Structures are given as C-alpha cells and as structure tokens.
C-alpha cells in the first residue's frame, strides 16, 4: 500500500507503524498544519474585509459563526468515526472492510449535510432573533447565516475526502484541495464585497462559491476505483455492525463537538451585552488564538492517525510512545510562541490587522495576551484528545469537552462577573481556566489506561 508523504514520494504504510515516530508525526502534521491554516483563512479573510466595512459586520459574523460550527462539529463526528475506523482497518491490512466503511461514512455524511443545510436555511431568522441581536447586526447576521449554511454539502464532501485520505496517512492532497478553496475565496471576497458592492452578502457568497470546485474534485477522487479506498455505489449495502461502529465512535464526538459549539454560541450571546466592540474583540481574539494553536491541533490529528494504525497493527506500545512525543512537541512549541504573542507590543499590531476601532483593538489585545500566556495547556489537550480519538474512545473526549465548557467555563464566567465584577474580561479568563482544567482531566484519563481497550475487535468483526 502506498501513501503520499510530506516529501512528495511514495511511502510504505510502515512509516506509521514501524519507522521513526518523529518522521511519522512530521509527515502527517505539517500538511495538516497548512490545511488547518487554510481552513482558518476562510473566516480570517471574511473578518479582515468585513473589518473594513465596520464593527457591526465583524460582530455579526462573530455571533453566527458558532451556529455554523454547531452543525459542522456534529457532522464531523461522522467523518472522524470514518477516519478512526478506516485507519484501524488500514493498519490491519484489511482493505475490503476499509472500503466498505468508507461507503457507509459517505452515505451518512451526505444525508446529514443536506438535511442540516435545509433546516438551518429555513430557521435562520429565528436563530438570529434568539441570539438577541438588533439593528445592523441582526440584519447582517441573518443574511450571512442564510447563505453560508448552503455550503454544508460541499464542505462535508471535502471533510469526507480528508478523512479517507488521512486514515491512510495522506494529508497532502486534502491540503491542496483546501488551498484551492482559500485562493478562490481570497480573490472573490474583495471582488464581491467591494467590486460589486454586496458587502456581507458578498463575503458569504464568496465562501460558498469557493468550496464548490474542490468539493467536485474530491467527489471524483472518492469514486475513482483505481484508489485503494474508494466509494463504489453498486456495492453499497448498509450493514448494521458498520453503522453501529460509526454511531459508537462518531456520536460522542458529534455530541461533544456540537454541544461545545452551542456553548460558544451562548458565550457569544453573553458577550453581546457588553456591546459590539466587545463582541468584535472576542471574535478577533478567537481567530488569532486558532492560528497559534494550529500546530498543536495538527499534531493531535496526526496522533489520532498514528495511534489508530498502530492499534490496528497490534502495536499499542508504539502508539503510546507516539502520543508522548506528540505531547512534548506541542507543549514546548505553544509555550515558546505563547510567551511571544502574550507581549502587548506583539499582539496589538496583530489585532489591528482586523480592526480599526481603538476600543476593539484594546479589548482584543488584552484577550490575546491572556490566552497566549496559557495556551501551552492546549498542547496537552490536543495530543491527549488525539490519543483517545485514534483508539476509538471518543466518549472520553465528549465528557471532557462538555465539562470544559458547560462546567468549568460557565462557572468561571459567573464567578468573575458576579463576584469580581470583571465584565467582558470574565470571558477572557474563563477561556484559559477551562482549557487548563480540561487538559488536566484528559491527562488523568490517559493515566487510567482506558485508551488501551480494543474498540475495533468488539464493534467490527472481520468480514470475508
């Protein structure tokens, strides 16, 4: 079996199951870093150009982005389950079951994305009104949400393509697909927003249009029968044990991810009471934080693939060594970068890229300073989350994600707002406190050894 690696050559799958762990992590993580950065650039590009229009437009996209993320993260449970299960079959050299699982994931993913897009499109006015927006923010948010949710089927096709390829150790071609999309988006954003005078409508249309070409290419590749793992419509027969495995591995991630994003939605709603400037600063700060933590997130995704294939190959000792190495890399990187970005003379110019309002810049700089100083805890969180994902124990991640947001974060917000009277800074500090406690919980769960229990053997009996 051949996979593409970082260096553009054909590499035997033993790169992941037998050769240097550092090489395996880098081969997987670096393209994922670039890929995640490219995906982040969709919102960053919109935020940049909307910042040229005004604070109200930035506040609008900040409010509705969590709505979109609720749906995306629920659906990603399907693609993540596919990536985990396919990678374990791939590590066990069971190509037939790997292809069959890919077909099941395809059907589930397409069905969910179409249903979600229709439901959110029809209910967008109700959602925006429930968020408590008014005036310009309400109108802009409704317009943006109604258009942006239509990209769900195309986005999920790209995500499915990424999952199938990442399960095999190929993180390069998914990166190239997303690179195509962001280049199109960067071209169309100013053209539609300012050239045609469409404003926030143009931003949404640019993002939607940019996803269509790569989604079409991804679909063509997925049905290519020359590929080791491909979708064969003639042989699609839904099987109870495959669907059961997708539900068991994917549902915890879907629930955990979507409820976490729903919590972010409530937090965004909470920030609104402090004004448009605070809401815009919150959105900008989150986007900057997402950039600095990209390498850690990518290493976590690489860890999931490496752990999955090594568990499939019955090499749990190597899977654990990969996790420990990934954790060290992430923590060291985030500690160094966080110390740099936490300095005001560094983060203020960065925030100024996305805003002209002095109030937004001041609030955003404070938010970034706090998050960056403590971001090294994300290194523990992301790598350990990858360990449990790769082993199929996504229920652990769901429990910790739920606790991190619904218990730790909201409790910290309440204490800071009502006891210390810290206003919008309550949200700033709640982010770092909850992230740190979540990382500690995951590390304790790792020490119990729960991740070593074999999910594939129980849920996926071998088929001939």
Structure description:
The chain is an all-alpha fold and 464 residues long. The protein has one domain. Helices cover 81% and strands 1% of the residues. It has a two-stranded antiparallel ribbon with strand order 1-2. Helix 2 packs antiparallel against helix 3, helix 2 packs parallel to helix 7 (172-195) and helix 3 (55-91) packs antiparallel against helix 4 (95-130). 58% of the residues are buried. Residues 1-12 and 459-464 have low confidence and may be disordered.
Our measurement of the CA-to-CA distance between the termini, rounded to an integer number of angstroms, reads 20 Å
Instruction: Give the number of DSSP strands.
Output: 2
Question: Strand content of the residues, in percent?
Answer: under 5%
Q: Write down the overall mean pLDDT.
A: 82
H/E series: EEHHHHHHHHHHHHHHHHHH
Broad structural category: mainly alpha
- What characterizes the major β-sheet? 2 strands, antiparallel
What is the number of domains?
Answer: 1
| Spans where pLDDT lies below 50 across 5 or more residues | 1-12, 459-464
Overall, the morphology is globular
Work out the helicity level.
over 70%
C-alpha Rg (nearest Å): 21 Å
Number of helices: 18
Strand order within the widest beta sheet: 1-2
Give me the secondary-structure topology.
Layout: E1 2-4, E2 10-12, H1 14-17, H2 21-53, H3 55-91, H4 95-130, H5 135-148, H6 152-167, H7 172-195, H8 200-222, H9 240-272, H10 276-292, H11 294-312, H12 316-341, H13 344-352, H14 358-373, H15 377-390, H16 394-418, H17 425-447, H18 455-459
Antiparallel strand pairs: 1-2
Helix pairs in contact: 2-3, 2-7, 2-8, 2-10, 2-11, 3-4, 3-5, 3-6, 3-9, 3-10, 3-11, 4-5, 4-6, 5-8, 6-7, 6-8, 7-8, 9-16, 10-14, 11-12, 11-15, 12-14, 12-15, 13-14, 14-17, 15-17, 16-17
